[in-house]
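Sat 14:20. Reprocessing the chain from the morning session after the first attempt stalled halfway. Input below, unchanged.
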Amino acid sequence: MSEVRVRFAPSPTGYLHIGGLRTALYNYLYAKHNNGKFILRIEDTDQTRLVEGAIENLINSLEWAGVKYDEGVFVENHKVIEKGDYGPYIQSQRLDIYKKYVEELIDKGHAYYCFCSKERLDEVREEQKVKGLVPKYDGLCRSIPLEEASMRVANGEEHVVRLKLPHDLDIKFHDLVRGDIVINTNDIDDQVLMKSDGFPTYHMAVVVDDHLMKITHIVRGEEWLPSTPKHIYLYDAFGWEKPEYVHLPTVLNKDRKKLSKRQGDVSVEDFREKGYLPEGLINYLALVGWSPEDNEEILTLEEMVEKFSFERVARTGGIFDKDKLDWVNGHYIRSSSVERITELAIPYLIKENYIDEKFASEKEEWLKVLVDTVKESISYIAELPEKVKFIFNEEVEPEDDNAKELLEGEHVPQLMNAIIEELNKVESIDMEYAKTFMKTIQKATGIKGKNLYMPTRVAITGSEHGPEMVNILYLLGKDNIIKRVSKILNKN
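Finished this time. Tokens:
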């Protein structure tokens, strides 16, 4: 078998969709599993949809996610460059190549010039709809002799080039996920191959590029399945060896509808901004439509490479379950070092105006304790500020009636006074002092157990449950605790 070569070929029309990242990931896993090559090609033939900076964003998202490719389009020193022996890897730089192959198809009788106006095509389609037919080109220009058509082209008449599909031919192919598929040419349109602006359509460019770049397996979304017979026909028309096809199930939301911006986060950038870890997102995304034989759910990229096969990819759409993503990502947060999570958390704390850059550089140890205090309870980094706001807020209020009730006990004033008295004996609270503080209060007052801990916690945090008390005492510090405790005393 020749070397496995796969490609991810997005259009630079905005941010990388989560479904696109999964397609790239499956390409990567299959290539690496087979010691093959993974290529990034940019398909920008639809010039109307291009977005400034989208190529850089795509590459940046793949890089962040750890989905590394071997050749194609890269960004180095803020410049888009290409590496590899089969370039250019950006379609708009390959127009002469497509022109040559379109002319070859016309010469062989597999394509023809079409001069129909947009208005005529719209009328034909409307008529077909009224008759209950599938709207498609009616073949008016198929019968124009090549000599006549060439003269009209030479005279500057506006035209496109269409694929000349034979009538009533079964086109068969095997899909590694879906099995054997047969589609009759009567159900397919005479596809435009070259537009009037001299740019090829996806269908023409993709076949030429995949052949010239020696792509062995085409791994893409199932929305391209109806187009595959046209591509198969083009391979046959050129006399080229066909690649293997793999059409992946769509990534769906919980309502089993296609994941779209209307329902929330769909781009890699969205998840990155919320502070999902790349390994968490990639691990979860791999499982949206694929599962390893041992059904293991927590997998490193290396383990995925080792276990990946298309036999284990589902035929039906994979459900993108945010709760499951949060569970997987939470696992990776808990497994990460406190140093790493602290570094990631700092921008979120700055954004909430809890800290500034100066504070972040001067209070490194304090921030690590802050992060360590809530690290177990977050699913993604953007949740962290909400979990620690009680540390930064000027004042805290009891969060519910139960919490209020805990501050109404007869012993509470004695407890609050003892806390103030004890804190006034020290300059500040360090971790060692925080570890013995509650025992000291117990000795001084004789109050213990729930009667000691619960009112103290509510007084300084507003909640009867929460993180490690030692950490809270250290993080709040002497002045904040005295201020909060004094407020309770004043109310009683």
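The first helix runs from residue 18 to 33.
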